DNA sequence: CGTTTTTGACCTGCGC
DNA sequence: GCGCAGGTCAAAAACG
């Protein structure tokens, strides 16, 4: 380096570090109960190739999505989405087979009238059908969004409750710090808006990140961990990293006239098609230095408010240090970054173990390798990747093969995407984000290390339900084991405290099983070591009198599908206290998962597309029923 | 020629 | 302070 090394380094060192999470503002009406009662119907009407027999019943609660929604009305943001939902009361429906497609997709054109003649109906049917095909598409996307939102909402809700409780206990002065100390989900970012409108941002603003590829503005955290300090200043948002597509916005007001804005959620904004997604990203990138927000997220409605907020500070492409100082009162490199949040954000990790020959798992995202290291204890090098879908995206992943079994690939994700994701990437992204959120919410401190990546690559977790607590585990890590190894194919959510029972996810060929702590016993007895379950089986059991069963005909394999299944599972976990709700989320997600068609190991395979066709390609009878925990069918 | 990979240097946190 | 180990940077090389 040509520069004075020490100088530049130290300066950089203090400067705000690269952001690893996006900032997305979520506005959630606290009292709003999305979760427990809602799930999207899976009725996809009559898809092109299909049996049109997809039905689902989840605890008898169904929401018929976009039944009255025209294409243009399709909510793009979760906010809108949710509003719609609340506007249209749930549509209860039984899982019936072979319903007339009209029923589901019938647009506002004209309500069905029994008196209509057959020909009229026929014509209408035609028109409707076309529209329906669009609807189906969007329906599926919505489902994903919803499942995400549900999970996230639950997490948020819990978070808020915790926070409020804390606040009540603590003096006012401590409020902020309390807030900042609450371990938020990876994607969460809490801001406190004071009465005067000024924002105190206890958390480092993710959007500060300005790392152009030029890298002139490198930054590193110099603040010692744990010395989180809350100061009130305007959020350091600006620059490209700033695009956010916040699906939801949570706003609370506490007694002190302070608004708490909880920002959350990965930008999971499913695209209509991957092509569209690509284009969008292109545009996204191009505009990365300006106000790409509107362009890339046209659906953002003004009333949501955050768009303008974003604009206001995104005016400068690359503000100089002085400018930033002016704007924020702090030089960029001295910006307060909530170390706590930072560490939370940074530390939450989700690692996924898959059996694959490909050098890296195709998760739908674009990655750029930025490093490789020989990890201790493992002859296989560990590769470091960073997301390149959007400049400044904080997400990273590490990929390493298992020392024992080289066919097992461990991919560890960290961070939350700061941009819309291609459909293909939604599954994995939401999985990791949900899992990370759960992790952070559930445990107050660290937990076990990423298995397979750490020096001890023992993934012996499977055999017992004991969480592995590694003292040398700086990061809370959730591990999804998607290998079919009966001994190890589990996911453990470990809490350092040990007072939590791990959730266990087992991946059995085509299904995924989640065991909540309360029902550990029954599960282990029957599934483990048993023959492979029927293909396409999804089961979730919980201590609650609720059981869901998913049965599909096709054999699913490949990490992609698994990833999606896990998404559902993870989403479920995320809202631990509200398992039922989570379940709904999970189901919706699962339903859209697909027995893989062409999931080549190459980068070209698109999980999203694959998923999209899932239901239509295979008329999977999906049933869910309330049952006793005891009863189960395999 | 732009983008990605490779790779050695460098940084940071941690334990001693 | 030193050494180690995990991560990251960035120049150079490779790639398409
Ligand atoms: Zn990304």
TrEMBL record:
Domain WRKY: 356-422
One GO CC term on file: nucleus
SUPFAM superfamilies: WRKY DNA-binding domain
PROSITE patterns found in the cross-reference section: WRKY
UniProt biased composition (Basic and acidic residues): 206-220
Source organism per UniProt: Marchantia polymorpha subsp. ruderalis
One annotated GO molecular function: DNA-binding transcription factor activity
Pfam families on file: WRKY (PF03106)
Subcellular location field: Nucleus
Bias-annotated ranges (Polar residues): 66-83, 195-205, 223-235, 289-300
Name by which UniProt lists this protein: WRKY domain-containing protein
Region described as Disordered: spans on this chain: 66-124, 195-254, 288-335
Alphabetized UniProt keyword annotations: DNA-binding, Nucleus, Transcription, Transcription regulation
């Amino acid at each position: 380096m040509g520069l004075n090394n020490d100088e530049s380094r130290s300066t950089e060192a203090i400067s705000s570090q690269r952001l690893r999470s996006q900032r997305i503002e979520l506005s959630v009406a606290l009292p709003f109960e999305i979760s427990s009662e809602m799930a999207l119907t899976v009725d996809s009407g009559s898809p092109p190739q299909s049996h049109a027999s997809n039905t689902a019943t989840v605890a008898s609660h169904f929401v018929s999505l976009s039944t009255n929604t025209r294409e243009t009305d399709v909510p793009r943001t979760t906010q809108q989405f949710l509003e719609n939902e609340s506007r249209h009361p749930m549509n209860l429906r039984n899982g019936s087979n072979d319903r007339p497609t009209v029923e589901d997709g019938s647009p506002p054109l004209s309500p069905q009238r029994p008196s209509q003649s057959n020909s009229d109906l026929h014509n209408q049917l035609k028109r409707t059908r076309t529209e329906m095909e669009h609807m189906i598409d969007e329906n599926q996307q919505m489902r994903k969004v919803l499942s995400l939102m549900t999970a996230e909402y639950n997490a948020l809700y819990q978070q808020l409750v915790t926070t409020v409780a804390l606040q009540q206990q603590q003096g006012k002065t401590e409020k902020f710090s309390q807030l900042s100390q609450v371990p938020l989900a990876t994607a969460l970012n809490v801001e406190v808006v004071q009465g005067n409108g000024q924002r105190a941002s206890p958390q480092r603003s993710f959007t500060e990140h300005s790392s152009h590829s030029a890298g002139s503005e490198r930054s590193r955290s110099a603040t010692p961990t744990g010395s989180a300090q809350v100061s009130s200043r305007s959020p350091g948002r600006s620059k490209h990293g700033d695009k956010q597509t916040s699906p939801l916005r949570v706003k609370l007001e506490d007694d002190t006239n302070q608004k708490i804005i909880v920002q959350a959620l990965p930008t999971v904004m499913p695209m209509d098609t991957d092509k569209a997604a690509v284009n969008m990203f292109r545009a996204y990138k191009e505009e990365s230095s300006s106000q790409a927000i509107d362009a890339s997220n046209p659906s953002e409605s003004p009333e949501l408010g955050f768009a303008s907020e974003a604009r206001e500070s995104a005016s400068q492409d690359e503000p100089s240090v002085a400018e930033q100082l002016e704007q924020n009162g702090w030089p960029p490199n001295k910006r307060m970054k909530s170390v706590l949040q930072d560490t939370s954000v940074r530390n939450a990790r989700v690692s996924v173990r898959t059996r694959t020959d490909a050098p890296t798992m195709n998760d739908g995202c674009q990655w750029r390798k930025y490093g490789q290291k020989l990890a201790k204890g493992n002859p296989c090098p560990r590769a470091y990747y960073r997301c390149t879908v959007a400049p400044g995206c904080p997400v990273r992943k590490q990929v390493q093969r298992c020392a024992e079994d080289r066919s097992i690939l461990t991919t560890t994700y960290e961070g939350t995407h700061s941009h819309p994701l291609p459909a293909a990437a939604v599954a994995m992204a939401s999985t990791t984000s949900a899992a990370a959120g759960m992790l952070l919410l559930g445990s107050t401190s660290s937990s076990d290390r990423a298995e397979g990546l750490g020096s001890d690559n023992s993934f012996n977790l499977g055999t017992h339900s004991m969480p592995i607590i590694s003292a040398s585990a700086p990061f809370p890590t959730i591990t999804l084991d998607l290998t079919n190894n009966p001994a190890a194919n589990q996911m453990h959510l470990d809490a350092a405290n040990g007072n939590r029972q791990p959730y266990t996810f087992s991946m059995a060929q085509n299904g995924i099983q989640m065991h909540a702590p309360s029902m550990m016993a029954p599960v282990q007895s029957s599934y483990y070591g048993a023959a492979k379950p029927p293909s396409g089986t999804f089961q979730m059991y919980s201590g609650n009198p609720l059981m869901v069963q998913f049965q599909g005909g096709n054999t699913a394999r490949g990490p992609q599908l698994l990833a999606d299944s896990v998404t559902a599972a993870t989403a479920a976990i995320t809202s631990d206290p509200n398992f039922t709700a989570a379940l709904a989320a999970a189901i919706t997600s699962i339903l859209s998962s697909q027995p893989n068609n062409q999931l080549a190991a190459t980068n070209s395979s698109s999980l999203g597309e694959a998923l999209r066709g899932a239901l239509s390609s295979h008329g999977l009878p999906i049933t869910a029923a309330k049952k006793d925990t005891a009863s189960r069918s395999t």
